[in-house]
Structure formats: structure tokens, C-alpha cells
């Protein structure tokens, strides 16, 4: 597949004392649940791996089995299953709680181990000589949801991360339906946590999130799972990422208006809830430092967020992230400059 039908566009400037020091190019696309192209910049057909941005879709099969009812998973535990969490003690305890409910422990997690994203937790662990375990991995919740399906269906537990495993084949089939692509057309790679990752055009990724946030138009078997994913993520934004991170701060501020999930190598997917829109953004160089700013600028140009919203205390550092020196002095900013081509017939829904 060709990566581009059009070249990427200028997405953001990195300014130091008003001099442009660096630039980030990006592609962005806005699609409604019917597949109508609402707006774009760069190439809607840019093919990229969605990385962790696909986690809300990967949680759908677990909820189709009603495993939240079967095992008593709470909304907080479902949120962590959709998360790239920061590895705080709260995140870790929720993962361990969900594992206990399916009769497993952390030894079954095949995601590997890394230091928590949350700096205070990482320092606490070092100071107290606490052993890092797989539950601290940002993808441990997603893996727990996969293991729950294996326990329920009596599928092999040790190999659940492999592409030919029933749980991965089932996930691929279902997410492909959201992408409106045959499974064999989805590019497959291996994610940082070891499970299959999906490569699709940004258009199809945005379409999937448009549908995810409009459960009433979905086939019956997807309606309740999609609703639960949105409810869990928007009700508990701090569990989806962590303090200071874009997904958490963005969803926390807008209180149920958006479902947001980022992925490694600078991918962002957003569902505009109750408006049938999906948004996909990719920063070409893989740097996430401008990703939230570009995403907010896309929403601003669509009229879905206001200048007051993005320049307010809660989001100003997401919209124009500060550049700091080692003395923690602000010496510049990252400024989004992406320009959307918007369908002139489209209007913001009230």
C-alpha cells in the first residue's frame, strides 16, 4: 500500500524566542460514521500503525462476551483495559484486581516490564526497592482483557499474544469491521508490548472511532460494548493515561464530549461523542510533543472547541506546550499551524 496520496502538511512549529527552530509535519482526517470525508490535511490515505490508539477497539470483544458481568469487572477496570496507563499504584492495583477475578496473577502477562511513566511512582519504587512487575507496564490492562477472554473460552493462556491465537484472530476480525476493511487488507506488525498491531489508512481509523462513538448505528452485538468503552474512558480519564498526559487532561476538561486515545509514534484518535465524527492525526516524525497541540487545533478549526477552551488554564499547555530549559524556565513554545480543508457543506451540530 502507498503511504501517501498527498504529502504530509506542516503541522507545528517549535519556536525559541520566536525563531522557528524545528518543524513537525502531520496528516489529519475527520470522517463521519457514514464514511463522509469532513476535513483533512495532508493525506487521509496515510497508512500507519495505530499502536495503542486501537486499545478501545481491542476491548470490544471482551465486552461482547459480557465478561464485565461474568467476572464482575468494574468501570475502572474496563478503563484500564483501554488504557496506556502511567503505572501509578492505582493503575497497578486495578490490573491486579482484574487478574484476580479471572483466577490469574501477573506471571501470565506477556507484555514485558518497563518503568512507570509517572515520575513520582518511578521514584517511589526506587526508594522503596519495590520490584517492577508486568502490571506496571502501560499495556497491562489490555493484556488482562485478552487473558479474560482466554479463561472464558478455555483458550491457551501462554500464547495469547501470538497472531494465530484465537483471541488475536477474533480481535482482528472485529476491529476490521470497524475499519470497514477485510482482515487480510490490514497491515499487521508487533506492538511494543508484543501483541499484533494494526496498520490502516488514517481515513479508516477515523471512521472506526466515528462509529465507536455512535453506538446506536452499530450492529446489535456492538452497541452495548461500544457504550461501555466510552462510558468507562470518559468517566475515568485519569485511568486512561495519567496526570499531565493529553488523553487524561483533554477528556477530563470536556467531561464526556470526546473519547480520546493516543498511540506510540505520535498517533491520536478522537471520537466526537454523540456527533458521529472520528478524527485521526499522525505526526510523521513520530514525536508526540506536538500531537496534542495539532489535535486541538483540528478541533478548533472544526468549531468543536473554542479559543477560550484551549487557552484556558487546563489546556493551554496542551495547545501550546512550553519549551523549557534545564532551569525549568520557559524559553519557547510548540505552536500548531496545521490548516484543514473542510467540506463547505458541513456544519457543527448543535
TrEMBL record:
<dbReference type="GO" id="GO:0004067">
    <property type="term" value="F:asparaginase activity"/>
</dbReference>
<keyword id="KW-0378">Hydrolase</keyword>
<dbReference type="Pfam" id="PF06089">
    <property type="entry name" value="Asparaginase_II"/>
</dbReference>
<dbReference type="InterPro" id="IPR010349">
    <property type="entry name" value="Asparaginase_II"/>
</dbReference>
<protein>
    <submittedName>
        <fullName>L-asparaginase, thermolabile</fullName>
        <ecNumber>3.5.1.1</ecNumber>
    </submittedName>
</protein>
Amino acid at each position: 500500500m502507498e503511504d501517501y496520496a498527498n504529502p504530509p502538511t506542516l503541522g507545528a512549529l517549535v519556536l525559541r524566542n520566536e525563531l522557528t527552530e524545528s518543524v513537525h509535519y502531520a496528516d489529519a482526517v475527520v470522517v463521519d460514521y457514514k464514511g463522509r470525508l469532513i476535513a483533512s490535511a495532508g493525506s487521509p490515505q496515510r497508512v500507519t500503525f495505530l499502536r495503542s490508539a486501537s486499545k478501545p477497539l481491542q476491548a470490544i470483544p471482551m465486552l461482547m462476551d459480557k465478561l464485565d458481568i461474568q467476572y464482575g469487572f468494574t468501570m475502572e477496570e474496563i478503563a484500564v483495559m483501554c488504557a496506556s496507563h502511567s503505572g501509578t499504584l492505582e493503575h497497578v492495583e486495578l490490573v491486579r484486581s482484574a487478574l484476580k477475578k479471572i483466577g490469574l496473577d501477573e506471571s501470565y502477562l506477556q507484555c514485558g516490564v518497563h518503568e512507570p511513566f509517572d515520575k513520582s511512582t518511578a521514584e517511589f519504587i526506587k526508594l522503596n526497592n519495590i520490584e517492577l512487575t508486568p502490571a506496571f507496564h502501560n499495556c497491562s490492562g489490555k493484556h488482562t482483557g485478552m487473558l479474560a477472554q482466554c479463561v472464558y473460552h478455555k483458550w491457551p493462556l501462554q500464547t495469547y499474544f501470538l497472531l494465530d491465537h484465537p483471541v488475536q484472530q477474533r480481535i482482528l476480525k472485529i476491529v476490521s469491521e470497524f475499519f470497514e476493511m477485510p482482515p487480510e487488507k490490514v497491515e499487521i506488525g508487533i506492538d511494543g508490548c508484543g501483541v499484533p498491531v494494526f496498520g490502516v489508512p488514517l481515513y479508516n481509523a477515523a471512521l472506526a472511532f466515528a462509529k465507536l462513538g455512535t453506538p446506536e448505528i452499530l450492529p446489535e452485538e456492538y452497541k452495548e460494548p461500544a457504550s461501555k468503552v466510552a462510558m468507562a474512558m470518559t468517566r475515568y480519564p485519569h485511568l486512561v493515561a495519567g496526570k499531565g498526559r493529553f488523553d487524561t487532561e483533554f477528556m477530563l476538561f470536556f467531561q464526556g464530549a470526546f473519547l480520546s486515545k493516543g498511540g506510540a509514534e505520535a498517533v491520536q484518535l478522537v471520537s466526537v461523542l454523540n456527533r458521529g465524527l472520528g478524527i485521526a492525526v499522525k505526526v510523521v516524525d513520530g514525536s508526540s510533543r506536538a500531537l496534542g497541540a495539532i489535535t486541538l487545533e483540528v478541533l478548533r478549526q472544526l468549531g468543536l472547541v473554542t479559543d477560550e477552551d484551549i487557552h484556558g488554564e487546563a489546556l493551554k499547555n496542551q495547545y501550546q506546550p512550553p519549551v523549557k530549559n534545564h532551569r525549568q524556565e520557559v524559553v519557547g513554545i510548540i505552536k500548531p499551524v496545521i490548516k484543514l480543508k473542510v467540506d463547505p457543506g458541513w456544519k457543527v451540530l448543535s
